[in-house]
Amino acid sequence: MIWNPNKECMSRDEMSALQGKRLHKIVEYVYHNVPFYRNKLQAMDIRPDDIQTIEDIKKLPFTTKQDLRDNYPFGLQAAPQSEIIRIHASSGTTGKPTIVGYTRKDIGIWSETMARCLTAFGVSRDDIFSVAYGYGLFTGGLGAHYGVEHLGASVIPAGTGNTEKHLKLIRDLGITGIACTPSYALYLAETMEKIGISKDDIRLRIGAFGAEPWTEQMRKEIENKLGLKGYNIYGLSEIMGPSVSYECQMQNGSHINEDHFYPEIINPTTLEPLPLGQTGELVFTTLTKEGMPLLRYRTRDLCSLIPGTCDCGRTNVRMGRIQGRSDDMLIIRGINVFPSQVESVILSLPEFAPRYMLIVDREKNLDTLLVQAELRQEVFTSTFDTPAAVDALEKKLASKLKSVLSIAAKVQLKAPGTIERSQGKSAHVIDNRKL
Ligand code: ADP
Ligand code: K
Ligand code: ZN
User: Fold this and answer.
1) Nearest atom in ligand 1 to 98's CA
2) What is residue 32's predicted lDDT score, i.e. its pLDDT?
3) What does pLDDT average to over the chain?
4) How far is the CA of 118 from the centre of ligand 3 (A)?
5) What is the domain count for the chain?
6) How many A from CA of 336 to the centre of ligand 2?
7) Of 190, 205, 385, 429, whose Cβ has the fewest other Cβ atoms within 10 Å?
8) Whose CA is nearest to atom 16 of ligand 1?
9) Taking every annotated instance into account, which residue ranges of this chain make up the domain AMP-dependent synthetase/ligase (predicted)?
C-alpha cells in the first residue's frame, strides 16, 4: 500500500520539475522573510530569480547548527508568530536548544509524510498503534502521534516510562503497532521477560524504529523478542522531525520524502556535492516549510543515497543507514548529547577542574551515561575524607547535568590528575556500546 502514489511514485522528470519550482518559491520566501538569508544571498550576489531549476541549488549557501545557535531563538523563523501553532526544541550544545516553529500547513505536511511512512510499514486504519517516543519538546512523540491520527489508526499516546503498564496495555488491548527508539524496543522486550509476558501473549506486528542509529543485528533481536517486523524511520527536528525518510517492504534503504525535503550528499571538508552512491554528509533543503525553512542544512549525518527504482513501486530516492556523524554528537536513549554540554556544566562549577570523561554503555539494553569529573586540588583536600561532602558535590553535579542534558547521568568524582589527558575529537568520550 502506498499512501500518496501521486507524490511517492513520480517519474524523475516530474519530481525534478516539482522540486525546481518549489525551490524557487522557497528561496523567494526566505529572501523576503528571513534577514539572515537575505543578507547571505545578497553577499553572494544571488537573487531569487537566479534559482529556477533544482540544479541551481548548488549556488545556494549552506546552513549549519551554529547558524541556528547564533540566531537563537527565532532568528531563522520566516512566518510571523501569529501563524506559528506549535514549537518544538531539540537539544543544543552550551545549553541553548534549537527552536523550531511550525505553521498549520507545516503540521499538515508532517502528518502527511508520517502517514506515508506508516503506510509503507503496513499500518492501516484497523491498527491500534502505540507511540512510545517521548512526548514533549522532542519531536518524536507528537510527530508520530499526529501521523497515526491522520492515517486513521487508533493512537495510544504511551510515551516513555511506565513500561510495565504500557506492556499490559499492549497485551490487553491487542496493540498491533509501536513507534519508539530501537533501544527502548529492546528494553520493552527485557521488561516483558521480567514481568512474565511472552511474545505469544501480544499482537504487535509492526515497529517503527528511529531517532538513533541501529543495526541489522538489533533489528533481528527486536523482531525475535517482540514478534514483529521492524522498520527504520529517520528524521531531525530542524527539518521536520521523524518522517524525513522511511523504509518500505523491500527494506533496502529508506525512501526520502523528497517532494518536501531535498537531499544532497556533500564532502564535509570541501563542501563539494558528491555523486549519487558515495558516502558523505547528508544535507537537506526544506522545499515547502513555512515556519522555519532551511536552505542546504548540514545534518552532520554520514550516509549515501541509493540510485535506481525500488521494487515497491516508489521512485523517491533512498538513503542508506546512517554510518556515523561528522561531529562528536552522541545519541543516548534517543537524546542528542554533546560532550561540550558536559564541559559547560563543569566549567560553571568552581569545585571542578576542566577534566572530565563521558563513559557511555548499554546495560540491559538501556543506554547509560557515566560522567567522571576531576575535583580541584583544594576542594579534593578539604572533602575527600568527608563522605557527606563528596556526596553533596556528586548530587550537585548530577542535578546540573540532568537539567542541561535532559537525561540522567551517573557521576563519579575523581582525584586531581587521575583522568588521562589526551588529544583528539573523542578524547572526552568512551563509547562502549556495540553498534
Ligand atoms: P528527532 O526528533 O528526529 O530525533 P533530533 O533533532 O533530536 O530529531 O535528532 C536527529 C538526529 O537523530 C539525526 O540527525 C540522526 O543523527 C539521528 N537519527 C534520527 N533517526 C535516525 C535513524 N533512523 N537512524 C540513525 N540515526 C537517526
Ligand atoms: K535523536
Ligand atoms: Zn521501496
Assistant:
1) 6
2) 98
3) 94
4) 13
5) 2
6) 5
7) 385
8) 301
9) 77-284
Give the domain CATH number at 266. Answer: 3.40.50.12780
Which residue minimizes the CA distance to atom 19 of ligand 1? 211
- Between the CA of 425 and the centroid of ligand 1 the distance, in Å, is 21
- Distance between Cα 282 and ligand 1 center (Å): 12
Residues 240 and 355 both lie in one domain? no
**Which H, E and C letters describe 108-164, residue by residue?**
HHHHHHHHHHHHHHCCCCCCEEEECCCCCCCHHHHHHHHHHHHHCCEEECCCCCCHH
Q: Is 156 part of a structural domain of the chain?
A: yes
Same structural domain, 317 and 376: no
CATH assignment at residue 389: 3.30.300.30
Domain interval for residue 238:
81-327
Nearest residue to 181 (alpha-carbon basis) of 129, 218, 220, 224: 218
Q: pTM of the prediction?
A: 0.89
- In degrees, rounded to 5, the angle at the alpha carbon of residue 160 between the alpha carbons of residues 156 and 163 is 90
Q: How does pLDDT run across 82-115, given as a tens digit for each residue?
A: 999 999 998 765 567 899 999 999 999 999 999 9
Query: Tens digit of pLDDT for each residue in 8-23?
Result: 999 999 999 999 999 9
Q: Ligand 1: which of 238, 327, 331, 433 to mutate, most ligand atoms within 8 Å of CB?
A: 331
Distance (angstroms) between ligand 3 centre and the Cα of 86 equals: 32
Tens of pLDDT, residues 242-287? 999 999 999 999 999 999 999 999 999 999 999 999 999 999 999 9
Q: Residue 340 falls within a domain, yes or no?
A: yes
Same domain, 130 and 148: yes
Q: Are residues 114 and 200 in the same domain?
A: yes
Q: Which atom of ligand 1 is closest in space to residue 244's alpha carbon?
A: 3
Cα 24 from chain centroid (whole Å): 27
How large is the average pLDDT for residues 388-395?
95
